[in-house]
Each structure stands twice: as structure tokens, then as C-alpha cells.
Amino acid sequence: MNTFIRSIAAGTLLAALAACGSSGSDTPTTAAPGDNDGNDGRTPVQLVQGATIRVNTEGGAPVLNTDDYLDATVRVISATGETLLEAPTQVRGRGNSTWGLPKKPYRLKLREAAPMLGMPAERDWNLLANYIDKSMVRNKLAMNLGDQFGLTYSPHSTFVELYFNDEYQGVYQIFEHVETGANRVNVESLDQDEDTDPARVTGGYLMEVDHRLDEDVCWQTNLGVPLCFKDPEYEVEDIDNPEHPSYTQFNYITTYLNEAEASLSASGNSYTNYFDVNSAVNFYLIQELMKNNDAQIYPLESEQYTSSVFLHKRRGGKLTFGPLWDFDIAAGNINYNFGPSPEGWMIREDVWHSRLFANTDFGERVFEKWCSLKRDGTIDGLANEVDAIVATIDRDAIDRNFVRWDILGTNVGPNAFVGETYEEEVDYLKDWMTRRANWMHEAFTEEFGACPAT
């Protein structure tokens, strides 16, 4: 039985309610819009490197938590000293476990939308600290792979040095926030207080598989997978009220999700009626290649943990995986749950992907994409991709970061490897990714045969 999950911002489980209705899902039966590839018409991005960001709160007040915004100003300065942006903003902490670390991540909300270092104008931005990932590369690597593999949208970012209330904080990544918008997750706007037309309620939606339950409305599928609604931002009293438009929308999307989930267990390829296949293949391969522990899709009651697995659905389209998010403890940077080893399947074993591989042609589709990535050099170029990312960070800035945070040679979390130098951390990542790719290729070819030459 489906249950609604009421949760507050801190993730406290308040109650479980009765099952939702079971109206039809209006499932597309042909290749509807949504079998995505490319950038979907978004503004091209030419990132600006080597900038400094200065955030100063009103009166120098400290940011104390991840809930309360403080008024502040943000100034963005180029590598040559030119002021690129100076604007009023609000700032708060961000993250869950990462907020408890010494080097704090932050969320900025500009008063007015503005471009940021080559990224299209928006109000919401994240400053990621990458404290646990001492290479500072894993999140950027995952997003670059998203672009190279063909996901429709992966959040853009660039490395900066951050001063907070005039105190140096080190090297950060300024990241686009995961939200809906023409240059972010590009789904049609759905008015939760107005839209009930059967065609309009088919989209758009942005959801997250997240065991933290940190949205006002979260919900469990028939297999117990927790999905939290990011957009629209529903209210519990509205989705409970049959007279409110939110009730119709919520009933549609939860029914669609349950039917989509059921299609994973069906023989044949009925899953292609519900899921955007390209996104499913590409999303899976990146998560598996980086062996991202947090991306395993499991029931809420399981001992496994899922977070930052985003799904979205455009109007008239299919359920689409993405965007990618949160890879700081992926790629061998975790000392539990088989994370240190570059061998062995991880994402493939979860409740959704295990069914996809067992009952459909999904495995063959994954192997076909893998072979194309081998042929074009993407898989064999992983170490070079890491080097290219490192080259975008000023070497003196890296040194300043580790003077500010003297953590090289120290285990600061679930680190599976502790390098004595920054170069050792980078070399470990390159070696791990290479060995991971080699193991996956051997496992795939053993299962499906040799890759075709063309």
C-alpha cells in the first residue's frame, strides 16, 4: 500500500496517512518527448576560472544553521581583479552531514537573478566545500561525465576561493542549485493551485529519492522507495483534499510512479513506456562507474541509504533520471559497504536496477552505450579528465586551501585512502577510476560478449 509521509524540514517523520487513489496514469505508449539527449536548448556555458567570492553578512553575523537565511552581500572578483558581480543576497548553511564538518558549505539566494562566472542567470547557488574529498574533483568529474554520456542537464560549477566575513575559507565550488528552470531542470511549470486538466497534470515534476525525508511532502512507492517532492512544493492539507488541484496532480504522479515501478518487474520492455531510456542508461552507468553508495535505490525501511537521486517528468513525457548530485564520497572515497574496492556491482543490486537487469533488455542497452563510450575514448580517458579538472584550479589556491585546512594525511570522514599530499589524493582517484573502468569492462564483456568494432 502507498503511504503519504509527512515530514518537516529537519526530516522528522510526523505521520503516515492512507493510500492515495488509483486513477489512470495516462501512460505514453510511444516514444513521447522525453527520450532525451543533448542540452535541450539551454544557454551554452563558458565557465570563468580562478575567481574569488566574498560573502559578508549584515553586521558580520555568523551562519548558525541550514534553515535560517541571513541578509548579506556577495562580490565576485575575477582572477585579474575585476568585479564581475556585486549584489545583495541571503545566505544560509547547506548540506546534512557536511554541515557538521569544519569547512562549511553554503547556499546563496540572490535578491535578483544574475549570471555567475559564465553560468546563466538564476537566484539560487551552492558553495560546496569538498572537505571530505581532498582531491576536490569528484563532484566536478561526475557532472562532466553527465555531459559526456549525454544526460540532458548536469549542474554546472567552477572552482573559486571563498572569503566569508573577510575570513579566508579555501577552495570551493560554486554550483548551480538543483531546481526547475529554463537553464536548469527544464520541465514545464505546474500550478499546484490551478492545474487539473488531464494533459497538464502529466508534467512537470521534480522529485528526489531521499531517506532523509526532508521535504514537507514525501511518499513511498509500492516497493517502499521514498520520494520527496521538490517541485511542485505540495502542502499535506492540499494533497489530502479531493477538492484541491494538488490532490489531482499528486494522485496522477504517484499512480504513474507506481505503474512505472511495476514495469521494472515485468517481462519484456514495458519499462520503456514509462522511463526515458537514454537517461536511465546514462544515469546508471555514471553512478555505477563511480560506485556511488548514496545512489542505491532502496526502501525506506532497508539498512541501505539513498539520497540525491533526482527524477523529473516533463509534460506528456516519461520519467527521466537526473540531474546528478553529490559524489564527494564516491569513487573509492568511502571505507564501508564495499566502497573502497573498484570491483563489484553496487547500483545494479538495488531494488529498481536489479529488476531492470533481470527482466528487461536494459542490460543490453547499457552494454551498447558502454561500448560506444569505449570506442570514442571516454572510458579510457578518465585519468586525463581528472587531470583536466585539476588544471582548472590554481595550484597556489590549492596550497592555500590546505594551509587553511591542514587535513592532508588525516582521515576526515569515511576516507578509504589518506594521501600525504594533494598529488597523492589525485593519483589515487585516477588509479581507482582506471581500475574501476577496467573491472566493469571485463564484467560486461564476460556477460554480453565483446564490444563490436563499430
Please give a handful of descriptors for the protein shown:
alpha+beta; 9 helices; 7-stranded mixed beta barrel; 454 residues; 7-stranded antiparallel β-sheet; 26% helix
Describe this protein's structure.
There is one protein chain. With 454 residues, this protein is an alpha+beta fold. The chain has a domain at 51-176. The protein has helices at residues 138-149, 236-239, 245-265, 277-289, 353-359, 362-375, 382-390, 395-404, 422-448; strands at 3-7, 13-16, 51-57, 70-77, 83-93, 106-116, 119-128, 157-164, 167-176, 205-209, 217-220, 226-231, 309-313, 319-321. The strands form two sheets. Strands 2-1-11-12-10-13-14 form a seven-stranded antiparallel beta sheet. Strands 3-4-5-6-7-9-8 form a seven-stranded mixed beta barrel. β11 and β12 form a beta hairpin. α1 (138-149) runs antiparallel to α4 (277-289), α4 (277-289) crosses α6 and α7 (382-390) runs antiparallel to α9. The longest helix is centred in the C-terminal third of the chain and has 27 residues, at 422-448. The radius of gyration is 22 Å and the shape is globular.
Write a brief caption for the model.
The protein is α+β, with helices and mostly antiparallel strands. It is 26% helix and 21% strand. The chain contains 9 helices and 14 strands.
